[in-house]
Amino acid sequence: MTPLNLTMQAFGPFAGTQTIDFTALGRSPLFLINGPTGAGKSSILDAICFALYGQTTGNERDPAQMRCDQADASLLTEVTLDFRLRGVEYRVRRVPQQERPKARGEGTTTHNAEAQLWRLKEGGEVESCLVARKVNDATAELHTLIGLDANQFRQVMVLPQGKFRELLLAESKDREKIFSQLFQTQIFQRIEEQLSAQAKQIERAVKDHRQHISGILAGGELVGEAALEQELEALTPQVEAARQAFERAQQQRRTAEIKRDEALALERQFEARDALASDKARHLVQQPHIESMQARLAQSTHAQALHSPKTALDQAQHALTTAQAEHQQAHTALTTERTSAEKAQRAWEVAQERQTEVPALRERHRQLTEFIEQGQQLSALQGRFQTAQTAWQQADASLKRDEKQLDSIRQQGEAIGINLERLQAELQQLASAPAELNRHNNLLNQRQELDELTRQRRELTAQQQQATDALKRLQSEASQAEHHATEQEMRWHQGQAALLALSLEVNAPCPVCGSLDHPAPAANNANLVTQAQVEEARAAQEYARQSFQGAERHHQQLAQQIKYNAEQVQRLTQQLGEWASQPLVELQKTCDEWQRQTARQTSVERETHQQIAARDTLRREWGALDKQLKAQRPAVEKAKEDALRLESQRDQLSQSLPENAREPEAMRQTLTELERQVSHIEHAWEVAQQALSNSQTQLARAEEQLRGANERVERSEKSLQQAQTEWQAALQQSPFEDNAAFQAAQLDDTQRQTFTQQIEAYQRRLAELEGALQNYQTQLAEKTPPDLTALATLTDAAQAEENTQLEAWRTCDGRLSMLHGIRQKLAKAHAAQAELEAQYQLWGTLSEVANGRTGHRISLQRFVLGVLLDDVLIQASERLVRMSRGRYQLVRREDPSKGTKASGLELDVADTYTGKNRSVATLSGGESFMAALSLALGLSDVVQAYAGGIQLDTLFIDEGFGSLDQDALDQAIAMLSELQMGGRMIGVISHVSELKEQMPVRLEVSASRHGSSVAVKGALL
To answer: Where is the composition biased (Basic and acidic residues) (predicted)?
Structure first.
């Protein structure tokens, strides 16, 4: 940071406005700030520090107390500083809180503190506004830009009066903060924190696994892993023998159930056969009625044969067509019924196959019933475990939630920091958006006005052309009207002369000239013009003249408007520049873009304030949450130990049950589902049997219908042939005596169709019943009804034997499975514990070393800073050796501090006179100043060499040279001159007269009763 221009108004001892142009001191100047005591030399440094951070160099006076008592009441106390940082120029202005006179009335009002920050172009013009008014925002932005807070700035760039020894005598902890900020070594601190967190996490996991192994053995009631192996060896053959006995009993039970189910199926077939026989007997009761209808239908057929030959022939042809259609329908119906019968057969086979699953489902039903009874025995232990587990989970969840929240707060803090940097950078880019938006909106209004003027000009030009044409036309009409009026008036006069001539008498005087002779009287003309016609012509002439004059005035007005329009177009074109020729939509797009950037600037400012508030809130939450976590961890460990012990006991009891039978409610649901499945399968089997029987009956009916259709087709063909024969014969002779006999023998189509359908339906149903009954008779020819009671008794006995063998096998196998599970858990637990212990050996060692809990208690960051401090001390010692005439060197103390105090960055001074190292606190005032000055210069050299984000290119020293002798003073000035030649600005405040001779460039501060003033002396411009 290099100051360029400083303006102080009503600040400190400066009553008016004082401006210091540091660029007038030369490039990288070494200058003296000189003046009497109390004139305001230190106030210049106060003003620089106040402009940047809102604090004075000594931080002993409140900024509100810096107002000059001699200043005019209407003059605000404010400081403005222009400075250069990394090639970019900035301007900051600060106004402290103060009282000022009211604008109206008497008394004063409070003017609140404010601050503005701008980025400047070359030449000092404002490029963008970074902070508009808020003090805290300006301080935070400058802290980010410079990389130092106010205290660090005072220790490394400004050495205030009486503060030389602060950096020199600072403890390791304080020096670590300063150096980590200067050299940007915070990454090493984050490494320390990450290593510590990783080691603690692994350590907790190791303890958990050790407790888990003890809980596994205790849950199996085992004294050790040797007892586990002995019991496994003895139990394995017993389990195999019990399993074989159970499988034999199970096979016997399945055989008995198969025989029982076959008997049930045979019983249902006998019942179906008897039902069909009953249906056939009821159907035969209708046979006499059917035979009567057949006889009546036969008589009608004879009568139809005697019908009119032509009608008989048509009816025969129609009957054949109908019979063929019925034959096709019957054939299609038979195909459909055969398909349905095949589907019913397949469905019956599927249902029969599913019926074989019923015994297994019933066996599962019986097992689940027993499992439910056994599971109820675990309820008491389960309740205790759930209570303990809930307590542990709640405590652990609360701990993890708080730890996660703590980590989340840290991540949020880091994210907010990154976001703030991004927002501040974006805010810098958007600072000029409002001004640009206003300018482009003005341009848009001007461009719209220009387009409107252009449109008006086209309209005015068209109107002018129309007005010119109208003017010419009206001028012609006015001339014609004037000529016509003159002609009419002349004709009127001629008519009047002719009328007068008619009244002339011989030797009578003329009324006009008085002559008695009338040689050529006016001749009478038939086209006389009346006075009214003359007046009408004169009126038309006047109207035409006025119209012409009006058109002339309108033409002149349009010309003036066109001229004014051209002037406005020229003015706007000059104001718009290149935008005058660009399309309006492009300018509109540019305005929209600036509108978007302006809205974005407002959003970014609001988001920046929100982020800063959120960061402060997170810092408070971090402290409270960290304290809470330290009190939670022991309680979580105790709750976890209780829960693990009860869990192990519960697992051992529950391992005697299969994995899928450890939840009573789930088993009850499964039990209900099994009952539903058995019922569904049996119902499906019955439905499939019924559907198969129905489909077979329908198939037989369809076959019978097809046979009947075939017969009808054959009869129809014969009838057609006979009708054709009779038609030929009837041509000669009629078979009936009279028409009455022929009509009495006929039936209408409806009656015939009714009789035929009833007869066919009866025959089809009879054929279906006989076919189905014949099938059952064939199937049951050599079979007798089964004894279901005896078969059920055999099945129950086999089921009881199977249950007995299952219980014996399950008891042995449950214990064996539990022991195998314990052995597997132990193997996994041992492997996991070994892996965790290996990890802890690595991460724990790294954490101890990185966090400085071994050896000399030097952390990783402090070790890195120690190396950097060694480089600083090398540079500082070169200067201190010269100023102390070879006596002193600054060295880093290598002995660790006592107790738990952090060490690694303490400073000692090597005294070559005694050959020993001693504390820098033992140096005298002058020696301390030399050491502090050397340290500051050495620090400046190293920071610049590492080319970090912080540039120490300016140094201000307030007093201290008076404690040096002449030789040390000369050496100090020589070193400052060398530093100046390296490109740094160095300002020195001192009363030492020798400095005036060696430092010709000075800022002379003069004091008076009306306030102090500053003048530049000896500058090399």
So the answer is: 470-488, 631-650
pLDDT of residue 580 exceeding 90, the answer is no
For residue 416, what are its two tokens? 């907010």
Task: Return the percentage of the chain with pLDDT > 90, whole number.
Answer: 3
Q: Residue 956: pLDDT band by 50, 70, 90 thresholds?
A: confident
288-309 burial, b at 16+ Cβ within 10 Å, e below that, comes to eeeeebeeebeebeebbebbeb
Kindly report the pTM of this predicted structure. 0.39
Cα 816 to Cα 238: distance, rounded to the nearest angstrom: 10
The predicted structure's pLDDT at residue 7? 94
b/e 649-660 (16+ beta carbons within 10 angstroms → b): bbbbbbbbbbee
- DSSP classification of residue 661: G
Least confident of 88-102, 726-740, 905-919: 726-740
- C-alpha–C-alpha distance, residues 185 and 176, integer Å: 10
Is the separation of the CB atoms in 646 and 384 below 8 Å? yes
CA distances from 753 to 308, 689, 756, 777, 980 (A): 21, 36, 5, 36, 132
E strands in 222-342: none
Identify the H or E element spanning 83. Answer: strand 78-85
Helix axes 664-730, 287-305, angle to 10 degrees: 30
User: Phi then psi for 163, rounded to 5 degrees?
Assistant: -115, 20
The helices-and-strands tally (H runs, E runs) of the chain is 22, 17
Asked if residues 178 and 908 have their Cβ atoms less than 8 Å apart, the reply is no
Displacement of CA 430 from its chain's centroid (Å): 25
Measured distance CA(480)–CA(464) in Å, rounded = 24
d(CA 962, CA 979) in angstroms, rounded, equals: 21
Q: How far is the C-alpha of 856 from the C-alpha of 443, rounded, in Å?
A: 71
> What distance, in Å, lies between the first and last C-alpha atoms of the chain?
21
The number of beta carbons lying within 10 Å of the beta carbon of residue 206 is: 16
Token couple for 808 = 């014996």
Helices 860-883 and 925-946: angle between axes, nearest 10 degrees:
120
Q: What is the distance, to the nearest Å, from the Cα of residue 547 to the centroid of all Cα atoms in its chain?
A: 76
SS3 348: helix
How many Cβ atoms are within 10 Å of 901's Cβ, its own excluded?
12
Q: How many residues does the chain have?
A: 1021
Among residues 854, 840, 853, 852, which one has the least CA distance to residue 198?
840
pLDDT of 947 reads 44
The pLDDT of residue 511 is 66
**Euclidean distance between CA atoms 450 and 454, whole angstroms:** 6
**Distance of alpha carbon 64 from alpha carbon 77, whole angstroms:** 9
Q: Compute how many other C-beta atoms are within 10 angstroms of the C-beta atom of residue 385.
A: 21
Task: Return the sign of the alpha-carbon dihedral for residues 427, 433, 435, 436.
Answer: positive
Give percent above pLDDT 70 in the chain.
Answer: 77
**Alpha-carbon gap, residue 640 to 207, rounded angstroms:** 11
Average pLDDT score, the chain: 77
Residue with tokens 């008085």: 514
Name the residue with tokens 């008891």: 811
How many whole angstroms separate alpha carbon 695 and alpha carbon 711? Answer: 25
pLDDT in tens, 294-313: 766 765 665 565 556 657 66
Q: At what angle do helices 309-355 and 664-730 cross, to 10 degrees?
A: 160
Give the helix/strand (H/E) hosting 20: strand 14-21
Question: Which residue is listed with tokens 């009546």?
Answer: 296
Q: Walk across the sheet containing 2-11 and list its strands.
A: 14-21, 2-11, 78-85, 88-95, 114-120, 126-131
CA distance 857 to 859: 6
Range in 569-583, 874-888, 919-933, 941-955 with the lowest mean pLDDT: 941-955
For 732-784, write each residue's pLDDT tens digit: 454 445 444 445 556 677 877 887 888 888 888 888 888 888 887 788 777 78
Q: What is the mean pLDDT of residues 342-357?
A: 79
